[in-house]
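Hi team,

Filling in the usual template for the complex we talked about on Friday. All components are listed, including any nucleic acid strands or ligand strings, so the model treats them as one assembly.

SUBMITTER: L.P.
PURPOSE: interface mapping
COMPONENTS: two
RESIDUES: 268
SEQUENCES:
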Amino acid sequence: MIRLPLALFFSAVLFSAGVYGVLARRNAVLVLMSIELMLNAANLALVAFGQRHGTPSGQVLVFFVMCVAAAEVAVGLAIIVSIFRMRRRLSVDDLSHLRY
Amino acid sequence: MTAQEWVFTALAVVGSLAAFRLVTTTNVVHGALFLVVALAAVGGAYLLLAAEFVAWVQVLIYVGAIVILFLFGLMLTRAPIGRAALDNQQRGIAFVIAVLMLGGLVYLVQSAFPWDSASKIAPTAGAGSTATIGDSLFRSYVLPFEAVSFLLLAALIGALVLSRRDDR
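RESULT (copied from the run log):
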């Protein structure tokens, strides 16, 4: 018997930490890790609401979100590795060729 | 607060601390290990919410595969260490934005689901069980299921192509 707002507070804290990580980090791998934190916060909220209403749809959606997150991490890390091979450094501040 | 809520609060504190340390640490490999703790705490939260299927899928996929991917990525890109290498100039504004977002979300949750009269997540016997999820996945959600399998195939091929060296 867990109250719904307790799970939602945990999800909110994880999401805010992820937002800070995405905005304040310079290394691309750390930015990806913060995105994973945000995805987990959303998953937790989905599961909490699904269990509160008694439908399995919450968990099914979480299953899909996890598959999409796995695919995104694989492709994102492949991009990061090839960027590192070209430029030998991974600071997202330097990756500004497409600007202006 | 019931006993489950105490255990959930303990898990939430551990997971939140790990998340804070992940976004503020100066050592990237430590950050990956803090991510493991945070993801495991979320998996434990799923177990407490009686969602055992996603709890074990979380441990399998997130902790077991995605964190390994991150560690390989860190090893291949020669993870730097130190505050200057890892944080950019916008830390102050980022902190303000994150605190505002946390405050906004907490206020939203508190106004929509007040603490004293909040509905309890009391899952009935078979509501979130694996059999129900499998049933729903292969009946109502079979089309997204097939689409996700295409997505995984595309991601696999894309990652292979992107990380191939140019010399044949």
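MY TAKE: The CA atoms of residues 43 and 66 of chain A lie 8 Å apart. Strands of chain A lie at 2-3.

Thanks, L.
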